[in-house]
Write a structure and sequence with these properties.
By secondary structure, the chain is α+β, with helices and mostly antiparallel strands. It contains eleven helices and 18 strands. Helix 5 crosses helix 6 and helix 6 packs across helix 11. Strand 17 and strand 18 form a beta hairpin. The two termini are 38 Å apart. The strands form three sheets. Strands 7-12-18-17-15-13-14 form a seven-stranded mixed sheet. Strands 1-6-10-11-3-16 form a six-stranded mixed sheet, with helices on one face.
Length: 467
């Protein structure tokens, strides 16, 4: 039977921006936002050491945690708003009005904190009780679907730690926007509620900076209209998971990453395309994990000796931040989505071969260089191409990024001791983050059935020894 954690809810409240601080606001969604309607919610957990009893937390920490959240929502008010989804031919938008709020839950858990934050494989269900639930969507009298945007849950482990969990709708903003919000929240908390501490790091909440130079919005609106027209109470993704599915965290340290970069760079220097290949710690980590994943999948399904499918392709999905990389200026502080997909296609025979990691790294690096140059070219085909690859069952996607610096999210209790993305339990992605030790390595989160996880662990460790 799968291990689970039990939580006791201590408090459940609504947190709003300060009264009168934000006027009623309508924000139209743009073509970078609309593709995310069909995707699941993002779930991120931050774990902190907190060697105090629950009563100490409730009396000394919780009041400022709620107050600082309210103040931060004043600057990031779309998170307290709702997404309004009209039927065709209406366009979706974010709507904020006085009294809108986020759900904020406080809970207690007596589970072993060290086991909860461990890197070794544990049942994926162990972390689920720490993930807040968004309120269900509702409908207005005129048929507009109203989608809540974000919810938080703080779980106290008495005399051990704290978990700050979040669930949010990707339509409102990407991971860069969310981490901007989280760092701002920590700053306001540490300052004792002084919003001036945010200085020049305020978000730019202005959809006008996104220009539709190629008619992309009309394509995305058609996809949105199809989605909203087929929406039903039962259309939410089914998140039932197998009892034998486990999650684990693997660390590719700086030394191993440097060896991988040297290996790939040496191989690339013998080819004519060496100038075009982008080689970084991110690239070699993705290549290394991708090849280990494919080998573990083939081994777990006893396909490693079959040659009749060597020509089939495996796919790797990257999300590329377009801020400051388009023909029109989008500043780094822009709040919303500003991502485009990049899909790497490599044959199984090449990935499974002796130079699989090198070939994967060259393919990923080349795709990144291409995405740096291509702007919004081909945007009308992004979604259809992605769906085709997803249907194949051979797509690996990346969630998160080492550039988010999630371990800098410090409320004053110290850096997080673990950060997890739990939605990878459902969508099969791998999560990437910077390492807590700040030494330049990368943490990789995986959720696999136990058989494949055992295979992956053996292949991962053996591959590291060969570097």
């Amino acid at each position: 039977m799968a291990e689970t954690s039990t939580v006791k809810v201590l408090e459940s409240i609504h947190v709003s921006p300060p009264l009168g601080s934000i006027p009623t606001t309508f924000l139209p969604l743009v073509y970078f936002d609309m593709p995310w309607f069909s995707c699941g919610h993002i779930q991120r957990l931050f774990f902190y050491e907190f060697p105090h009893p629950s009563l100490h937390f409730m009396e000394t920490t919780l009041p400022m945690l709620k107050r600082s959240l309210s103040l931060t929502l004043q600057r990031f008010f779309p998170y307290a708003a709702n997404i309004m989804c009209p039927q065709p031919p209406g366009k979706p938008y974010i709507h904020y009005m006085e009294g809108d709020f986020v759900n904020f839950t406080v809970a207690e858990c007596t589970a072993d904190f060290n086991h909860v934050i461990a890197n070794y494989p544990r049942s994926i269900k162990l972390l689920h009780p720490f993930v807040p639930q968004l309120p269900p969507a509702r409908s207005t009298e005129d048929g507009i679907r109203v989608l809540p945007i974000i919810a938080f849950q703080v779980t106290v482990f008495p005399n051990s730690g704290i978990c700050i969990g979040s669930t949010y709708c990707h339509v409102v903003g990407d991971g860069k926007s969310f981490m901007h919000f989280m760092r701002s929240w920590t700053s306001v908390y540490r300052s004792g509620g002084d919003l001036t501490c945010l200085g020049n790091s305020l978000p730019l909440i202005n959809k006008d900076v996104i220009k539709d130079t190629g008619g992309i919005e009309s394509v995305q609106l058609k996809e949105y209209w199809h989605w909203i027209s087929s929406w039903s109470e039962n259309s939410a993704p089914n998140h039932d998971v197998a009892d034998d599915k486990v999650r684990a965290t693997f660390v590719l340290g700086r030394a191993h990453a440097e060896r991988l970069k040297h290996l790939v760079t040496a191989q690339c220097s013998n080819g004519v395309d060496s100038v075009q290949v982008h080689i970084s710690t991110f690239v070699v980590t993705c290549a290394f994990i991708w090849v280990c994943l494919i080998k573990s999948k083939e081994s777990a399904t006893n396909n490693s000796s079959q040659n009749d499918d060597d020509d089939k392709f495996y796919y790797f999905l990257l999300s590329f931040d377009c801020r400051n990389r388009l023909e029109f200026p989008v500043p780094t502080t822009y709040f919303g989505n500003c991502l485009k997909p990049g899909i790497v296609d490599v044959k199984k025979s090449k990935l499974m071969g002796e130079n699989g990691i090198v070939l994967a790294a060259k393919a990923i690096g080349s795709k990144i260089k291409e995405m740096e140059r291509s702007g919004l070219r081909g945007a009308e085909h992004w979604r259809s191409t992605l769906i085709e690859r997803i249907i194949s069952g051979r797509l690996t996607a990346v969630a998160g990024s080492p550039k988010f610096h999630v371990y800098d999210t410090d409320f004053g209790w110290g850096r997080p001791c673990k950060v997890e993305l739990t939605h990878i339990d459902n969508d099969g992605a791998i999560s990437l983050a910077d390492c807590r030790d700040g030494q330049g390595g990368i943490e990789v989160g995986l959720a696999l059935n136990k058989n494949q996880m055992d295979e992956f662990l053996a292949i991962f460790e053996q591959s590291l020894k060969l570097l």
